[in-house]
Design a protein that fits this description.
With about 120 residues, the chain is of the alpha+beta class. It folds into 2 domains: about 1-40; about 45-90. Helix content is about 55%, strand content about 15%. The chain has helices at about 5-40, 45-55, 55-65, 80-90, and strands spanning about 45, 70-75, 75-80, 100-105, 110-115. The strands form 2 sheets. It has a 3-stranded antiparallel sheet. Strands 4-5 form a two-stranded antiparallel ribbon. Helix 2 (about 45-55) packs across helix 3 (about 55-65). The radius of gyration is 32 Å and the shape is rod-shaped. The termini are far apart.
């Protein structure tokens, strides 16, 4: 019994389909692993974020406390996605700057003192 040409062709196509399924599964698995690795690799700690944004670590802490930048807590540390932080900073309004000293007037005429608090008496 000789197999017909159509049977041979069908067997060849089945081999090809099986190989193609295996190759696609390998590619998808490798891509998923690469995406997972790049996701964890792009999370920065506060020192790395401060360096990337050219600001101090204190500024990063202040932005976190005020809720202006997003972060994820991993263990007991904050981690930051640089693209998400930049997007948040582009859309949020800047904080008003406050001077460290305010001028206050004393009850004595002609004398003005600088103080951090209210009126000096």
């Amino acid at each position: 019994m000789n197999p017909s040409a159509s049977q041979l062709l069908e067997a060849l196509l089945e081999i090809f389909r099986a190989e193609l399924r295996g190759a696609c599964a390998d590619v998808l698995t490798a891509e998923l692993r690469a995406n997972e690795a790049s996701h964890t690799a792009r999370l920065l700690d506060k020192c790395q974020l401060a360096e990337a944004l050219s600001v101090s670590v204190t500024t990063v802490n202040r932005l976190c406390r005020s809720g202006r930048i997003p972060f994820e807590v991993v263990g007991d540390t904050r981690r930051f996605d640089l693209q998400a932080v930049r997007a948040a900073l582009r859309t949020s309004s800047p904080e008003p700057r406050q001077g460290r000293r305010r001028e206050s007037q004393t009850s004595m005429k002609g004398i003005r003192l600088l103080s951090r608090g209210g009126n000096a008496k």
